[in-house]
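*** Residues and shapes ***
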Amino acid sequence: MFEQVQLGLYVFVLATFIGFEVIRRVPPLLHTPLMSLTNAISGISLVGSLLLAGRGEETYATILGAAAVFSSTMNVVGGFVITDRMLRMFRRDRQRPTRGGEET
């Protein structure tokens, strides 16, 4: 049992380090596609947490599954809000006045 926990912790630490290094090296222009990818991954974890919470095998597993559903849902919603905000920065404002004060 302890060996499985130790292996799981080892994989978690390595995945965290690799994920941090990969995201840190992404140029700012590519952050919006990266957010879309992380939203997809969060959606997959949401489906997995729904399956875990819905099994109803043990009480603690259902409670942890419900907490995972809540966390994954907040992550997906927050990711879409941030992506939408980033995409709005690149839209042109059609009613912006020109230099002479006239509207186009």
